[in-house]
Design goal:
Layout (H helix, E strand, L loop, with lengths): L1 H16 L20 H31 L3 H6 L1 H19 L10 H11 L2 H13 L5 E8 L4 E8 L4 H5 L2 E7 L6 H4 L3 H8 L5 H11 L1
Antiparallel strand pairs: 1-2, 1-3
Helix pairs in contact: 1-2, 2-4, 6-9
GO molecular function, one term: manganese ion binding
Organism: Haematobia irritans (Horn fly)
Protein name: Superoxide dismutase
Length: 214
C-alpha cells in the first residue's frame, strides 16, 4: 500500500513537471483590431484557452493516477475530457499563430496547390467560408493536408475535436466559430466574422505548415 502511494506521488510530481502552459501570443491583444477587438482577444486567450490548459493538466494528472492503479474504468472515463481540453489547447495554439496584423500572401507552392484544386484563391476562400459558417453550434473550419492523397482538404470539426487526431489531416489553418471567438463584436453575424478573418490570416504561418506537412 505504501509503495503504491509513493508511486502515485511520483507520477503526480512528474505530471506537474510536464504541465502544459498557455502559449504567449506573437502580438499584442489589440494588434488584430478592427477585425478582432482587444477585449475578445484577451478573454479568448487568458480565460478560454487558459481553462482548456488547466483542465487538460487536471485530466492528465487523473489519468496518470488511474494508470498507476490500473483503473481501466477511470482511464476510459477520462477520454472525453482529454479530447475536449486537449483539442482546445491544440486548436487554439495553432489559431493564434494563424493570425497576424501584417499583410501576407500564400507561398508560391501553397498558392499553386490551392489553385490546382479550387482554380483560384478566391474560390477556395468562398468554399471554406461557407463550410465554416455552416458549422452547427460550436466548432471549427479547417484547411488540412492529406498526406495519403497529397492534397488539401477543407473540413468542419465539431466542438474542440482536434483535426489530426480525428481525421489524420495535418492542420494548416483553422477558423474558430465558437461564439466566444466573435460574439462580443459581431453578435449573431457569424458570416461577417468569418469573412473578415481572411484579412488577418497569417499566410506565412500557413505556408510553413504546408511545407512541413509535405
Amino acid at each position: 500500500m505504501f509503495a503504491l502511494s509513493r508511486n502515485v506521488s511520483n507520477v503526480a510530481k512528474n505530471a506537474v513537471r510536464g504541465k502544459h502552459t498557455l502559449p504567449k501570443l506573437p502580438y499584442d491583444y489589440a494588434a488584430l483590431e478592427p477585425i478582432v477587438c482587444r477585449e475578445i482577444m484577451e478573454l479568448h486567450h487568458t480565460k478560454h484557452h487558459q481553462t482548456y490548459v488547466n483542465n487538460l493538466n487536471a485530466a492528465e494528472e487523473q489519468l496518470a493516477e488511474a494508470q498507476s492503479k490500473n483503473d481501466v474504468t477511470k482511464i476510459i472515463s477520462l477520454a472525453p475530457a482529454l479530447r475536449f481540453n486537449g483539442g482546445g489547447h491544440i486548436n487554439h495554439s495553432i489559431f493564434w499563430q494563424n493570425l497576424t496584423s501584417e499583410k501576407t500572401q500564400p507561398s508560391a507552392d501553397l498558392k499553386s496547390a490551392i489553385e490546382a484544386q479550387w482554380k483560384s484563391l478566391d474560390a477556395f476562400k468562398k468554399e471554406m467560408t461557407a463550410l465554416t459558417v455552416a458549422v452547427q453550434g460550436s466548432g471549427w473550419g479547417w484547411l488540412g493536408y492529406n498526406k495519403k492523397t497529397q492534397k488539401l482538404q477543407i473540413v468542419a470539426m465539431p466542438n474542440q475535436d482536434p483535426l489530426e487526431a480525428s481525421t489524420g489531416l495535418v492542420p494548416l489553418f483553422g477558423i474558430d466559430v465558437w461564439e466566444h471567438a466573435y460574439y462580443l463584436q459581431y453578435k449573431n453575424l457569424r458570416p461577417s466574422y468569418v469573412e473578415a478573418i481572411w484579412d488577418i490570416a497569417n499566410w506565412n504561418d500557413i505556408s510553413k505548415r504546408f511545407a512541413a506537412a509535405k
